[in-house]
Design a protein that fits this description.
single chain; about 425 residues; mainly alpha; Cytochrome Bc1 Complex, Chain D, domain 2; 2 domains; 3-stranded antiparallel sheet; 18 helices; about 40% helix; about 5% strand; globular; binds heme C
């Protein structure tokens, strides 16, 4: 009888503790939900809305062009060579291998090419209106009212009426951007064609494409009764990227739309660390988790070219503070887009988090061994990581004031932050594409 009483008592006590425990965890989670709600409105966190309406014929044209090597002068490189949907719309390499290279994706090798100077950025959402400046240094930009393009080719910037036929097709930054890989010597043009003007290369590419019977049909369907030019190529490439690479359904998007069960408790804690102790929101805020500004976060130098020192925005904007600033990256699908930063110097999200945790220490301890080990087979030369003393001084002096010297994140906080970046911000439909 006594044992029975004890058993009942024990059961009651355990039930009570279990209830108290679940209540406690529930209230913790509810508290986090409430805090995130406040932060979301304060820092304009908002769901991405997916692509604009699909125009099937325009999409089809853009889709064909995007992975067609015939739009490069040597016929060996397409946009997809460096922006592979299965590799997070990049190529998985620190620096890209364009015309003259051989093989695909992670097994692409340098061949007779000169690798690019920067990492191929992901294309997710880059067609959305917020992205008015493209490239790591923002050298192609667009504003709509009044329409104004700013690009490295002055003829496109409204200064030359001969280019009006092309410019009239370019109605967003992405369409204008798409024309530049075509004339870039190390991406799709090749050194053999350095003697041609940009316009000659664009005309040559366009004339080749339009001679192909299948393309004639696609152009006719996409742009009936128009006189086509390379601007139409840019427009189609932009529309394809918009339909194909827009996000709308990550856990974070669902959560922000009100589905509180879309994130696990550790992911929510990660979102909180992102916003509070990690201070990531200082630069990564708003709908796309970027303020669309240029910042210097003391990314270590990494290059295959001894003479190249990447000053980022500093090469476009001559003001002193612009040196070593790069565009703040948006973060949807960031778990799929390694390696990270403008030069691919960080192989994993965990390394990126360590960098932010103690930027100076991360910078000082950085060495290129890991990247060289991982990518030895892809390039002829090893990577080097050494700024000149002068560059290093400028890098330190210009470091963003929002970059905290020492975040002191605990191991658990780092793990949760990593879950938030890798799980909450990833849209499932893109994952099966990544091997
Ligand atoms: C050889 C590799 C390579 C090829 C081919 C290539 N890209 Fe890129 N792409 C890059 C690199 C590297 C950058 C970053 C360059 C920079 O910022 O200076 C880039 C930048 C971009 C950006 C800007 C993204 C941002 O975050 O600002 C877009 C959009 C883009 N490429 C689309 C295309 C399209 C469309 C094509 C085909 C017409 C193409 N790329 C061909 C490597 C490549
Ligand atoms: C001072 C502004 C600033 C702050 C604060 C900041 N970032 Fe960044 N973030 C940037 C910039 C600028 C880049 C691109 C830098 C580059 O490549 O040179 C970037 C890039 C990244 C990338 C790599 C994206 C890619 O595709 O390569 C990740 C991941 C990232 N940030 C996460 C975070 C996290 C997590 C925090 C908080 C711990 C944080 N950031 C805080 C400005 C900032």
């Amino acid at each position: 009888m006594k044992t029975c009483n004890f058993a009942v008592l024990y059961l009651l006590v355990s039930l009570f503790t279990l209830k108290a425990y679940t209540q406690e965890t529930k209230t913790l989670e509810q508290k986090i939900d409430e805090q995130l709600k406040i932060f979301s409105s304060r820092f304009r966190y908002a769901p991405t809305q997916g692509p604009s309406d699909k125009r099937p014929h325009l999409y089809e044209l853009g889709q064909s062009l995007f992975s067609d090597k015939r739009i490069s002068m040597a016929g060996d490189t397409s946009c997809a060579t460096c922006h592979q949907p299965q590799l997070g719309t990049g190529d998985g390499l620190p620096l890209s291998i364009g015309t003259g290279g051989t093989g695909d994706g992670l097994s692409r090798t340098q061949g007779s090419s000169t690798p690019t100077l920067r990492n191929a950025p992901p294309l997710y959402n880059k067609t959305h209106p917020g992205f008015q400046a493209l490239f790591w240094d923002g050298r192609v930009s667009f504003s709509s009212k009044p329409k104004k393009l700013k690009t490295p080719n002055p003829n496109l910037n409204g200064e030359n009426p001969v280019f009006d036929d092309i410019v009239s097709q370019l109605d967003n930054a992405s369409a204008a951007q798409s024309l530049f890989p075509l004339i870039n010597e190390i991406e799709m043009r090749g050194h053999n064609f350095s003697n041609l003007t940009d316009r000659e290369v664009w005309d040559e590419v366009f004339n080749r494409v339009i001679k192909i019977e299948d393309y004639k049909v696609l152009f006719k369907r996409a742009f009936p009764n128009e006189k086509w030019n390379i601007g139409h190529v840019g427009k189609a490439l932009a529309h394809f990227q918009d339909v194909e690479f827009s996000t709308r359904d990550t856990g974070w998007d669902k959560y922000l739309k009100g589905d509180l069960s879309a994130l696990s408790l550790p992911e929510k804690k990660g979102a909180l660390t992102f916003t509070r102790k990690g201070r990531c929101f200082m630069c990564h805020n708003g709908k796309h988790l970027t303020n669309f500004r240029f910042e210097n976060i003391m990314v270590p130098h990494l290059s295959l070219n001894e003479n190249f020192m990447d000053k980022g925005r500093g090469s476009i904007d001559k003001r002193k503070g612009a040196a070593f600033q790069f565009m703040v990256s948006p973060l949807r699908n960031v778990g799929l887009t390694a390696p990270y930063f403008h030069n691919g110097s960080m192989a994993t999200i965990e390394e990126v988090i360590e960098h932010y945790n103690e930027p100076l220490e991360s910078y000082n301890n950085y060495n290129e061994d890991k990247i060289n080990e991982l990518f030895e087979a892809n390039y002829h030369m090893p990577f080097i990581s050494k700024y000149t003393e002068e560059a290093e001084n400028l890098l330190f002096r210009n470091a963003s004031r929002s970059l905290h010297q020492f975040l002191a994140l605990t191991e658990e906080e780092k793990e949760n932050l990593s879950l938030f970046l890798k799980i909450s911000l990833t849209e499932k439909r893109f994952v099966h594409l990544v091997q």
